[in-house]
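Hi Q.,

Before the meeting this afternoon, I wanted you to have the S-adenosylmethionine prediction in hand. No need to reply - just skim if you have a minute. The sequence and ligand are here:
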Amino acid sequence: MASSLRRPWSRDGKAESGSWWCTSSLLVLVLVGFLLQWNELLYRTAPAQLKHLSSSSDFGILGVPWCRSRNDSKVSWTRGDLIQGLQEFAPIYDMRPIKNNRFGMGFDHSFGLWFMARWIQPEILIESGAFKGHSTWILRQAMPTKPIISITPRHPEKYLQKGPAYVDSNCKYLAGKSFIDFGNVKWQDLMEEYGIKDYSKVFVFFDDHQNELRRFQQARHAGFQHLVFEDNYDTGTGDHYSLRQICDQRLVQGGGHSCSKDSKEALLRAARRKNWEKAVDIDELCGPGGAWWGVRGQMRDNFNHSFVHITQEEHLENFKQIESSLEVYWELPPIAAPSLTHQRRYDPARATDPIITDNESKLFVQLGLSSLDKDLFNGYTQMVYLKVSQ
Ligand SMILES: C[S@@+](CC[C@H](N)C(=O)[O-])C[C@H]1O[C@@H](n2cnc3c(N)ncnc32)[C@H](O)[C@@H]1O
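Predicted structure with the ligand bound:
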């Protein structure tokens, strides 16, 4: 009896040391097995296994909420339309005057902007945030004869002195000394100047890194219905409050986050952070008091030159305001799977399924996309189209 009570680590426990080793080895095996399985789950999207990207997910294993469209309304274009669009757009993109558009749009969003502007067939196009004029050029390719209004503090012609830029001859520039913020433009007067009475014929594109809640309110107040936001940053990232952030709410499917260090989300985020530049771990996601909304509880604005802390209740109110006047919300999918583009920035688990999937490498080549510089696929930030109800 006495010996059976003796612990295996006791000096004279020789008789039991055999069974102790057996038990320990078994435990180690179980532990290793568990870790391997967990590792498999965490690294499902590791670059070495790019084929296993979350292509069948709705919005990834971490869950990302969509802004809810009224009555479940959808956009009128299909994946087939997008693929056909890509076929037309690839050679157009090749002709772009600004080959190096660092700090501006890359391939995915250039295509999205061109496609949506052309699909909607507006009578006039407005852009806020032009930089060297790449997006103006894209709008011009979509609508060759329609007027454009471009609002941007520095006139794109200034960039011409240093290198490639684009200045459009049928564009009214509210730039340089004539710069006036989108929210201060007398839109009714300006639209009258162009003979625009039907505001459903106006296409508005924002790439100015301003709080998207404010821009949404201003555009709605003006009566505009078709809005595209270039940088629709994910929760915990970016330099301004975005639609994606606003719709990340606990009451929405896939919305809300956990700031607990022991949570499954914390582990998943830590692992994904290693593989995807723009993925954020729990420390980056969460601010004081477990504030996960916006960026660490901040509503950021103007390239993060300013921000305010908001409560979760205020965040929810912002969402309700947007949702009450949102007819359609549609995020442009990434053009192609990371196994084809080799992009390493956005986490595919936080994006919708790409237009060209892992298994469609032939199509990727046929469309001429395989010859594009890989950096051009790095700028995807969930460009979004909104149809606003009036
Ligand atoms: C990311 S860049 C735009 C890139 C451009 N759309 C492209 O595709 O190349 C952002 C631009 O917003 C401009 N900007 C800053 N504040 C602005 C404001 N209040 N209204 C409009 N544009 C603004 C910046 O000067 C800059 O040119």
